[in-house]
């Protein structure tokens, strides 16, 4: 009788354990979902192109400070210095800048994507922007974030100073084409101690996209607006390195709270995740918007493939890295860290690619 009794309780415990295990699979925590994506991407991280591996590794290092991402950081530095080496030797004169930009701009003209056509139309009268904003400035700013600069930094700054960025960042058509990129660039210019056109851009952005006209925007243009908003916060945080004071961007957070259901309904997963991360940067993890975005992002994960596919169902890891690394950050946020810099984390800079030097 005692043996039967023991077996009864054993099978009860086994059943309860099985139910609990299945429940965890069916209802994973946000952190478990983030780990599922990590386990999909990280074994193949160093098969990715330098830009993609650097994008993922830099964000994960700024979250975790885990030295296992050191090789990805090095790949990112190598990519940056490769760009700057080329720019400082081959794209220097106004004529070279113009030719480089026209060649790059032609790629937008031949692309079938609506966004590319909008960018081509807006930028064809000021093609140098493609070199200055999309090329040179981003590489200089990334080196600066590492506490580094290019050995020809003085020459590169002289190129920047030939052009008035206010023209680009206050043009409504440019904002409709490049909202998120312009948000990045105005903060990068300020970071580098060059032109300060942050306020000019924000004023022009709000005039280009008044909230009262949201319903008149196409799906593409509404996404461009929200993408621009999220990148204002990201750029102000030096990309997940510094906390944000909500009061300094109250108009953005108020807009999110009022329109979160529309944002979820009309934008893609990467933009939705960025909205949630904006709140996390401001220390607002308890805000209902965060849980709404986390729930949407968690539900978007394909459990079979361990990642969030594209809206068309594409599961390519390289093209899907952006939305998935954002999902990891949203679901398993670890705070802001000023990193990596050569002064604070010198162990990450034992080998610096040729052409970069300490500031």
From TrEMBL:
The keyword Signal applies. InterPro entries: DUF3541. Residues 1-21 form the signal peptide. Keywords: Signal. The keyword Signal applies. It comes from the Bacteria. This is DUF3541 domain-containing protein. It comes from Photobacterium angustum.
């Amino acid at each position: 009788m005692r043996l039967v009794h023991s077996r009864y309780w054993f099978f009860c415990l086994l059943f309860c354990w099985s139910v609990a295990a299945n429940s965890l699979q069916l209802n994973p925590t946000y952190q478990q979902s983030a780990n599922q994506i990590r386990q999909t991407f990280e074994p193949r991280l160093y098969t990715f192109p330098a830009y993609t591996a650097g994008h993922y590794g830099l964000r994960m290092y700024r979250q975790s400070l885990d030295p296992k991402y050191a090789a990805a950081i090095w790949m990112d530095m190598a990519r940056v210095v490769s760009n700057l080496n080329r720019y400082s030797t081959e794209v220097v004169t106004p004529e070279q800048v113009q030719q480089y930009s026209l060649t790059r701009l032609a790629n937008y003209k031949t692309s079938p994507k609506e966004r590319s056509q909008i960018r081509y139309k807006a930028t064809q009268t000021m093609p140098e922007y493609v070199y200055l904003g999309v090329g040179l400035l981003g590489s200089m700013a990334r080196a600066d974030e590492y506490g580094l600069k290019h050995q020809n930094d003085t020459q590169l700054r002289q190129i920047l100073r030939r052009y008035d960025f206010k023209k680009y960042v206050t043009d409504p058509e440019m904002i409709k084409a490049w909202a998120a990129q312009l948000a990045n660039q105005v903060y990068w210019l300020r970071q580098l101690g060059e032109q300060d056109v942050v306020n000019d851009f924000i004023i022009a952005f709000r005039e280009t996209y008044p909230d009262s006209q949201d319903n008149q925007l196409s799906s593409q243009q509404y996404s461009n607006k929200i993408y621009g908003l999220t990148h204002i916060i990201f750029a102000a945080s030096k990309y997940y390195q510094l906390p944000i004071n909500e009061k300094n961007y109250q108009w953005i957070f108020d807009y999110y709270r009022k329109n979160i259901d529309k944002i979820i309904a009309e934008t893609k997963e990467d933009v939705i995740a960025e909205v949630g991360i904006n709140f996390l940067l401001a220390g607002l993890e308890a805000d209902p918007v965060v849980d709404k975005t986390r729930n949407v992002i968690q539900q978007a994960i394909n459990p079979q493939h361990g990642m969030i596919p594209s809206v068309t169902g594409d599961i390519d890891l390289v093209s899907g890295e952006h939305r998935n690394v954002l999902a990891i950050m949203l679901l398993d946020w670890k705070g802001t860290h000023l990193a990596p810099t050569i002064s604070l984390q010198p162990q990450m800079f034992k080998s610096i690619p040729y052409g970069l030097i300490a500031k």
